[in-house]
Amino acid sequence: MDWDGVQQSLSSDGYAVTPKLLGAAECSELMSLYEHEEHFRSRIVMARFGFGSGEYKYFNYPLPQLISQIREEAYPKLANIANLWAEQVGGPSFPKSLAEFLNTCHKAGQRRATPLLLRYGPGDFNCLHQDLYGEIAFPFQMTVFLSKPGEDYSGGEFVLVEQRPRMQSRACVLVPEQGQAVIFHTRYRPVRGSRGFYRANLKHGVSPVRSGLRFTLGIIFHDAK
Fold first, then answer.
1. What is the spatial distance between Cα 114 and Cα 187, in angstroms, rounded to a whole number?
2. With DSSP H G I counted as helix, E B as strand and the rest as coil, what are the percentages for the chain, rounded to 5?
3. Which of the residues 42, 121, 181, 213 has an alpha carbon 20 to 30 A from that of 90?
């Protein structure tokens, strides 16, 4: 990982697309977990809550080793960027290790695992949203793409929409390859203006899947209440 490049992309665009983090076999292994309920704490059918169409499942602790490894290794690098952003627009600082940060979550009553596996079929989509599960939230999250676009599914583009004060919203549509990840800010990022930094708000979603099955892995660093 070129973390300097990630930081630059996050600061300029609000997201960064990584090289392939997982091979095809690892992606298949993660997708196969979806049918094994012992790995999960809950299943969400999005249409019931007006979130869109499709479903996802939240993992339970202990997380599968591969997911835990990605989360633990990415956190310190992203915490460095988060602390820089906190200096620019205000906000809390973050400890160097994921274990320390999760301890802070647990003290605030946020103890439930948040990494999730999402499954979309034909016609399914995800409305624009933010993944905030309590008072404490880490500024970055990751979506890892497990299915092959154009082969396993069509449509289902990853959509980011950023709103800056007194400006029209800016949309970005991404179609990463299998095994790649998109790192993006959970809520807002600092943008330099003529009077210093201001906050640009971000939401993310998924456009309708036209055919096939689309699986993604969501890696969120804060725990939920």
1. 16
2. 30, 35, 35
3. 181
Q: What is the pTM of this model?
A: 0.94
Q: Do 171 and 203 form a contact (C-beta atoms < 8 A)?
A: no
Burial string for 163-191 (b: 16+ CB within 10 Å, else e) reads eeeeeeeeebebebebbbbbbbbbbbbbb
Cα 208 from chain centre: 18
pLDDT in tens, 35-61: 999 999 999 999 999 999 999 999 999
Mind listing the domains of the chain with CATH numbers?
A: 3-220 (2.60.120.620)
CB 222 within 8 A of CB 134: yes
* Strand 125-129 versus strand 52-53 pairing type: antiparallel
**Residue 8 amino acid letter:** Q
Tokens 């600092």 sit on residue: 190
Q: Average pLDDT, stretch 122-129?
A: 97
For 53, residues 6+ apart whose C-beta sits below 8 A from its C-beta are: 46, 47, 120, 123, 124, 125
Q: Cβ contacts of residue 191 below 8 Å, gap of 6+? A: 164, 197, 198, 199, 200
Q: Which residues lie below 8 Å from residue 158, measured CB to CB, with a gap of 6+? A: 143, 145, 173, 174, 175, 176, 182, 204, 206
Mean pLDDT confidence for 95-99: 97
